[in-house]
Amino acid sequence: MYLADHTWPELGDALSDGSVALVPLGSTEQHGPHLPLATDHLIAEGLATAAADRSDAFRTPTINVGVSPHHRQFPGTMWVDPPEFRDYVESFSRNLAYHGIDRVVFVNAHGGNVQHLREVGRRLHEDEVAYAVEWMWDESIPELVDDLFERNGPHAGPKETAMITHLAPDLVREDRLEDARDGGLVDLDDADTMVHGARTFYDAVDNSPNGAFGDPTDVTPAKAERLFEAAADQLVQLAEWIGDRDEGELFPEPRVEREAATR
Questions:
Q1: Of 5, 7, 113, 120, which alpha carbon lies 20 to 30 A from 204's?
Q2: Closest Cα to residue 25, out of 9, 43, 41?
Q3: Could you read off the pLDDT of 235-249 as tens digits, one per residue?
Q4: What is the pTM assigned to this prediction?
């Protein structure tokens, strides 16, 4: 169910303690010469929509701009600073809890958001406002991603190209797939930005001139569908698992007292 499609009387009857919200989060940032800036938030929204349709969870509106300053050299990339991003997502989540939704899955499709969503979840958990977890779609199916694509990449590579091929094929610039591969960085081991164990880079452009990583030419519609369905199934199972938990299982354990002396 998409929360924003309903009226307040309908939601007043539907929402209750134990309700689960799926909050799609992504970014609006460069994804090489072949994918749209909307890639991450389209993936997050597509997966959250599918999971909400297949479970009792509510999908919220999508948070489209994330923490992406490391892509700033590429025209069109948008970002917010980490403190503002964390505060916004926390306030958003507290609003959901006010209406009775005390279980939240941050359906995330942007690596730059991960640590900040984990911090928001920690704050909400500590205050016993809501139980919120960050879920990164490709981390739920790592073996399948590796099996499907020979030369993966963390950004604008075959896995993200496959997801957009499934969700919005008209947005994939198929005539630029080889350009993405040949003008980007196919293998991270070829990067020369690790020096004596230190990461000497801060921006994506330091490693990939066109912002793409991996080989997106290795994508087919069949692989794309298989990838999407596997990730959506994992999200459905996660939403159901959280929804089935007793409240006492989700919030912090009481302080551990000093054990009584045994002698």
A1: 120
A2: 41
A3: 999 999 999 999 888
A4: 0.94
